[in-house]
């Protein structure tokens, strides 16, 4: 069972209504850079069991905002490499799996494959964050927000700084 | 010249000295405590601000990373509410604050608050915001001097209260000391004044509770005792001299001077009160012959005997005086008149009828010729009265035999 909205659930309000989460504004047309910054930021607040020098990003599916993901190096605080991964391919040599839109079954398979490995999963288009990814982005015309799947995070071997959860949570519940 | 009233009293001097000493002590202690308190409070306030800045920097970092001002504001809001914080601002790469939370504080408006703020937090406390060892922004925390201002206000009030207490305590202390120092001195001064003005030589200063003052008191009392003794001796000598000047040494009777003095007083009173009095003149009959025949010692014995007998039967207010030689006078004080004169004359005649024993063993009888004057019947003033009595005596004398009446064994 995936309790994607575990944190959103504790705040009043209907869980069915779209709940705003972390809300990053950007100039129109710079969505890809904003996504890269956010992905790098999430990575910078995530601790892998093995320290690593380079952040290896794997992109799968029909990602729309993954073109500038190498810029994530700046906010991640370490060099980053970006590699495309075919749908259904094993995520070997990936520290971060960026999932573009795909069929739920495919997505589920990809995420299942990350289980037991130190891989941070970020879904590009799963507003409800029910697909099993640890982080879910929500990109709109002028703002970018993300949500957290606490279940997925707690099941993985990665450790996410609570402050990140707080940014997501507080922003989600604040306004 | 400074009079005694312009000089300060012991109590004033004591009070002043005490007040100064205590004031200095209180000021030194108060300033020390205040300054130490300021310094400690300032250090703690600054450390508090630094801690808050670091906490804010830590919790605001993800919000900067994700460029989420709302999250940043929510992160600093609870910190900005802590006491001692006036506001928190988060700066990203740009000069404009990324997020800020300013608390309006009433103390910032007061002058003490302004002084405390410029003393302790002239500039906001800044802490860098880092992400993975990279500085991505800065948090600035503005201090709120309300607590320090409160401390300064309380310190000033406390200082004032201490000053008030000092004044009261000084006054009480001065009063106590005054009782120990000034009261014995004042008692001595009162005794000295009483001795000088009222001649009260028997007064003595009471014991004092301070050694030096008690020693002074002892010496003072000893001086007074000497003064008293000296004064008594003077008085006795004066009295003796005065007695000598107003009394006849042979008979011990008042002399002419004293009689005239008494007469004047009696006449004055009789005039004032409208009463009458009488004056008798007496002259020994044949006294000269006794002197010639038996010697001066016998004459003296006769005079002494006359004096003693004249004194007998007189009231205390009456005066018997020897005017000189064998002349005597008797003042019958008011109220007295012709009857009193007659009674006195008879009494004297009866007394004198008894013989007088002479030193040689012989006995003589000496008569007295009397002349009397009664005020106001025989004269209004002293001269008239004396003249009348004298004249009457002389008239009586002419009718008497000039030889002595003597009885011999």
UniProtKB/TrEMBL annotation, chain B:
GO terms for cellular component: membrane. Gene3D superfamilies: 3.30.70.270, 6.10.340.10. GO terms for biological process: signal transduction. The keyword Glycoprotein does not apply. Pfam families: CHASE8, GGDEF. Keywords: Membrane, Transmembrane, Transmembrane helix. InterPro entries: CHASE8, DGC-Regulatory_Protein, GGDEF_dom, HAMP_dom, Nucleotide_cyclase, Rev_trsase/Diguanyl_cyclase. Residues 275-409 form the GGDEF domain. The chain crosses the membrane at residues 21-45. Residues 179-232 form the HAMP domain. This is Diguanylate cyclase (GGDEF)-like protein. It comes from Sphingomonas leidyi.
């Amino acid at each position: 069972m995936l309790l994607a909205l575990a944190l959103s659930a504790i705040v009043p309000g209907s869980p069915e209504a779209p709940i705003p989460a972390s809300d990053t504004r950007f100039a129109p047309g710079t969505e890809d850079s904003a996504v890269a910054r956010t992905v790098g930021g999430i990575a910078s607040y995530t601790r892998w069991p093995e320290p690593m020098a380079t952040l290896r990003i794997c992109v799968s599916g029909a990602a729309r905002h993954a073109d500038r993901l190498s810029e994530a190096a700046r906010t991640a605080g370490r060099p980053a490499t970006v590699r495309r991964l075919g749908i259904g391919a094993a995520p070997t040599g990936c520290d971060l799996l960026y999932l573009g839109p795909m069929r739920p079954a495919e997505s589920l398979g990809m995420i299942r494959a990350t289980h037991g490995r130190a891989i941070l999963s970020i879904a590009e288009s799963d507003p409800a964050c029910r697909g099993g990814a640890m982080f879910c982005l929500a990109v709109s015309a002028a703002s970018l927000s993300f949500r957290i799947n606490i279940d997925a995070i707690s099941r993985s071997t990665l450790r996410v700084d609570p402050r990140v959860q707080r940014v997501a949570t507080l922003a989600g519940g604040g306004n | 010249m400074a009079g005694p009233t312009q000089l300060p009293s012991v109590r004033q001097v004591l009070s002043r000295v005490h007040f100064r000493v205590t004031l200095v002590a209180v000021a030194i202690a108060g300033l020390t405590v205040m300054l130490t308190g300021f310094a400690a409070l300032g250090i703690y306030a600054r450390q508090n601000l630094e801690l808050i800045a670091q906490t804010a920097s830590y919790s605001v970092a993800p919000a900067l990373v994700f460029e989420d001002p709302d999250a940043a504001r929510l992160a600093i809001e609870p910190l900005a509410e802590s006491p001692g914080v006036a506001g928190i601002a988060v700066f990203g790469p740009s000069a404009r604050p990324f997020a800020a939370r300013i608390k309006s504080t009433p103390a910032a408006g007061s002058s003490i608050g302004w002084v405390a703020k410029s003393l302790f937090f002239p500039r906001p406390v800044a802490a860098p915001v880092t992400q993975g060892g990279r500085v991505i922004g800065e948090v600035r925390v503005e201090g709120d001097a309300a607590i320090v201002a409160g401390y300064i206000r309380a310190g000033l009030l406390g200082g004032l209260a201490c000053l008030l207490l000092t004044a009261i305590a000084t006054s009480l202390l001065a009063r106590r000391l005054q009782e120990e120092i000034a009261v014995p001195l004042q008692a001595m001064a009162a005794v000295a004044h009483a001795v000088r003005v009222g001649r009260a030589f028997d007064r003595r200063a009471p014991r004092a509770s301070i050694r030096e003052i008690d020693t002074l008191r002892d010496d003072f009392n000893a001086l007074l005792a000497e003064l008293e003794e000296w004064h008594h001796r003077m008085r006795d000598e004066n009295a003796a001299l005065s007695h000598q000047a107003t009394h006849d040494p042979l008979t011990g009777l008042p002399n002419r001077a004293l009689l005239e003095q008494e007469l004047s007083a009696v006449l004055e009173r009789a005039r004032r009160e409208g009463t009458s009095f009488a004056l008798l003149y007496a002259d020994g009959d044949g006294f000269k012959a006794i002197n010639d025949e038996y010697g001066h010692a016998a004459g003296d014995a006769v005079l002494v005997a006359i004096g003693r007998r004249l004194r007998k039967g007189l009231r205390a207010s009456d005066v018997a005086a020897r005017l000189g030689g064998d002349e005597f006078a008797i003042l019958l004080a008011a109220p007295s008149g012709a009857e009193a004169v007659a009674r006195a004359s008879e009494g004297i005649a009866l007394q004198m009828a008894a013989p007088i024993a002479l030193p040689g063993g012989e006995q003589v009888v000496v008569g007295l010729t009397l002349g009397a004057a009664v005020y106001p019947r025989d004269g209004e003033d002293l001269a008239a009265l004396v003249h009348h009595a004298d004249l009457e005596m002389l008239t009586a004398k002419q009718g008497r035999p000039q030889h002595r009446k003597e009885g011999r064994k």
